[in-house]
Amino acid sequence: MQRVVEFQARGHENIRGTHRTTIEITREDSLTTRGDCIIGVGATLALSDLSEEVRALARDPETMITLSLRVDEMTENIVGHGSEGLVYTDPTCMVARKSSYTCGRTLMVGADRAAVDLERDFIAALRDPNTILSCRILFNQ
């Protein structure tokens, strides 16, 4: 079974993309430089918006979850998997984690990349508040 969820976020002047274990996208509009895992603000979707069908897929450790991010002609893909602990309850943000830690904000665990692993040109483009970040989450079971 396969499901796709698409949404958008935008850049912010304080995006750094230097966190070594996570990537976060948030509905919040403001961002301080301390939020070094955040790569998109003003998101049009949060985990709590996802359907029960998608949540069930995410709770299966066999489900591969791919977060595809596009800015202009640049694309970055982060691949991880589901976990029984994924509950998708957070109304504000989503976090891809390299670790196996789960909470209401966790989109995927075992991610193959974190914010620091994204191309620096991609991060530089996201420092412009007018940049649109197109996001696609693929759940593949």
Number of helices: 2
Q: Which spans of ≥5 residues are poorly predicted at pLDDT below 50?
A: none
Give the tally of β-strands: 8
Question: What separation lies between the terminal Cα atoms?
Answer: 5 Å
Order of helices and strands: EEEHEEEEHE
Strand count, sense and barrel status of the largest sheet are: 4 strands, antiparallel
How would you name the oligomeric state of the polypeptide chains in this document?
A: single chain
In CATH, the architecture is Sandwich
Radius of gyration, in Å, reads 14 Å
Residue fraction in strands: 35-45%
**Helix content estimate:** under 10%
CATH superfamily: mth639 domain like
Number of domains: 1
CA-based shape: globular
CATH class: Mainly Beta
The overall pLDDT, averaged over residues, is 97
In CATH, the topology is named: Jelly Rolls
What class would the helix/strand composition place it in?
Answer: mainly beta
Protein model, in words:
The chain is mainly beta. It has one domain (2-136): Jelly Rolls. The chain is built from 2 helices and 8 strands, in the order βββαββββαβ. The protein has helices at 52-58, 120-126, and strands at 2-10, 22-26, 38-40, 64-71, 74-81, 93-97, 106-108, 132-140. The strands form 2 sheets. The chain has a 4-stranded antiparallel β-sheet, with helices on one face. It has a 4-stranded mixed β-sheet with strand order 3-2-6-7, with no helix packed on it. The longest helix is centred in the middle third of the chain and has 7 residues, at 52-58. The radius of gyration is 14 Å and the shape is globular. The termini are close together. The mean pLDDT is 97.
